[in-house]
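To whoever is on call:

I kicked off a structure prediction for a single chain this morning and the downstream step that reads the tokens threw a length-mismatch warning. I double-checked the sequence; it's 397 residues and nothing unusual in it as far as I can see. Pasting both halves so you can look.
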Amino acid sequence: MRTEPGPPPHQPFDLADPAAYATGSAHSTWHRLRQTEPVRVDRTPSGVPYWSVFTHRDCAAILRDTNTFSSASGTILDSIGAPDPAGGRTVVLADPPAHAPLRALTMRHLGPAAVRAHAEAIRERVHRLVAALPLGEQDIMPALRRLPMLALGPLLDLPERDWDAMVFHAIGCIAPADPEFTRGSTTTTLQHTHAKLFHLIHTALQNGNAFADDLRSITLSDGPTSSRDVLLNLYSTLIGGNTTTPHVAAHLLLRLAEQPELWDAEPAHLPALVEEGVRWATPTQSLVRRVTTDIELGGRQLRAGDWVAAWVASANRDESVFPDPYRFTPGRPASAHLGFGRGAHYCAGAQAARLLLSSLIEELAHRRLRFSLVQEPQHLSSTAINGITTMPMRFFR
């Protein structure tokens, strides 16, 4: 989706239509809704009602309160009306206290300490990725798609031969309507992409895997983890990392091409550049929860069992929190944006993503590479991820 608001739409932006995100921008609609309907009832294409929430205050409240707003039924729009069968079995789909052992294990492998231990090796892989970029015109997205696995691959003990395929099928799992991934109907596409990704994970585990071994050692609320639980947790982690970081990188490079003065920033300012890039792109459009007990939110009465979509992409442009929110401004408080979530489900791979993004910018700056957009990017058809599929750029010195 385009990150600029664009002109006021002639007709309401259909938040449930994947194709709308490939050709337009929801920001003008979100701006209006924050003022007029901060909490409203929407419906899925099949008619299932759910609450849409658009302000930063309300979205942050939903993400923090895991007692009232449960993740166990699913976290994306496609879950609404069709609860995820993996509910309670993965770090993303489990609520505290069941969430605690899965979170602790995931952080052991992906958290700050693990990233610090692998930092030099990760930077070296990013160095090789950038060094391989030729001067001249190219679609930068194939290179950017490799970015997350430069960290996730070693941290999760996954063979390098499978990295590119894992990324491709992970994106296909959350963007089945995009022409690059479509294999007939949405159902057929999802069956195909899920089967491919699970096969890759299963094959990768045949020669041993430290992450899987640790998963097998913990106990969930109903007993020890199964082989299925191992597959589901690796699947969930691969989906989370591979469908977000490449697209933050793409939107950040697009912004740097359009605001070349940002290249004058000192290395010490890179963290601020990356954090603003995450706010600006907000790769996860919304996060879905299910209400566990009656509660009032934004002046509306929500009932137990209701579905809720917290539109974090709207929250990250909320004027009450971010002055001049449609301007890319490094240096905003990093704790304000919801690009990595909030609360118990704060992104476990946030530190890895920060290292990958800052290393990418460092390498481009060190090589004195400049770039310009050759033609408009093609945006991903997805209600879940604010992605880019192709972005032709010209690299030069």
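Update from on-call: the warning came from a stale cache, not from the record. Cleared it. Sanity check on the structure: DSSP finds 15 helices and 14 strands in the chain.
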